[in-house]
Amino acid sequence: MKYKIIALDIDGTLKGDSSLMSPYMTRILEECVSRGAIVSVATGRSLKSALIFLQQAPMIETIISFQGALVSFEKGASNVWETFLSSDEVSLSVDLLSQREVDIVAYAGNEVYVEKLTDWAIAYGERNGVEIIEVESLKEIPRKLYRVLGVGDPDIIEVLESDLKSGYSDKLYATRSLPHFCEILSIDAGKDKALEWMCSQFDAGFEDVIAFGNGFNDVEMLRWAGRGVGMEGGESVVFEVCDDTAKSPNQDGVALYLDNLLENDQIGV
To answer: How confident is residue 85, by pLDDT bands cut at 50, 70 and 90?
Structure first.
């Protein structure tokens, strides 16, 4: 069995305590590409944020961002698959989040919108190098939205995600990217769905995909992939669905795991 597509979460998977990828990691990823494999990140980050991290990884040209709402080729030069929230879905999302004690944030491309410029929103913009745009109503943004985000206490977010999954899974896709982030996207979004679309473009099936992840938002991807690999130190739910485990990103877990597959000729075409 050879894996044609390698899907890598960023935070907690490729990226550990350091923002820099090791020479060993880059060498292994380059070798995977030289064998004919497609190496892609699959992240909850925006495309802009993912590209900043990937400046150190020129071999990764395919990017799944916004929790699988956007697939880009050629280092973001070509957006080839997108799922947006409809106006009704945006309205429903904002109404549902307004009932909870959370800050609400909306994303359209590289633009981030809020109805209230809180201290958290200001700090978030500064930390991520994006402008936070204050609007009267998130329901009336004249742009298509990839996602609506609720930010709050982890206990509130955990209950919120559970309620959304149990009561609205036929209308919206909800996931936690961090313990204090609950993201709402189109029902057609998700890292697994984005990878399924990629497979249709590269004459591959789910069995040809190996995926690495550590968080709540990686669960569907790890369950769907031919081999789902959970990262040491990840959320407990990850280990309920993955097929195998890798060492933490601080120990170059992804590189070590892929190196072993390369030695056994299990990467490429």
So the answer is: very high
Amino acid at 149: L
Give the pair of three-digit tokens for residue 173.
Answer: 């896709």
| Assigned domain for 136 exists | yes
Query: If you search the block for the tokens 């790890």, which residue do you land on?
Result: 222
Q: Are residues 171 and 111 in the same domain?
A: yes
- 204-250 residue pLDDT tens: 999 999 999 999 999 999 999 999 999 999 999 999 999 999 999 99
Strands 78-82 and 70-73: antiparallel
Tokens of 99: 């009932």
In terms of C-beta distances under 8 Å and separation of at least 24 residues, what long-range contacts does 59-62 make, across chains too?
Answer: 59/26, 59/29, 59/30, 59/32, 59/33, 60/8, 60/29, 62/38, 62/198
Q: Which of 158, 163, 164, 193 is nearest to 178 (CA)?
A: 158
- Residue carrying the six token digits 């081999």: 227
Asked if 99 and 146 sit in the same domain, the reply is yes
Backbone phi, then psi, for 136, in 5-degree steps?
A: -70, -40
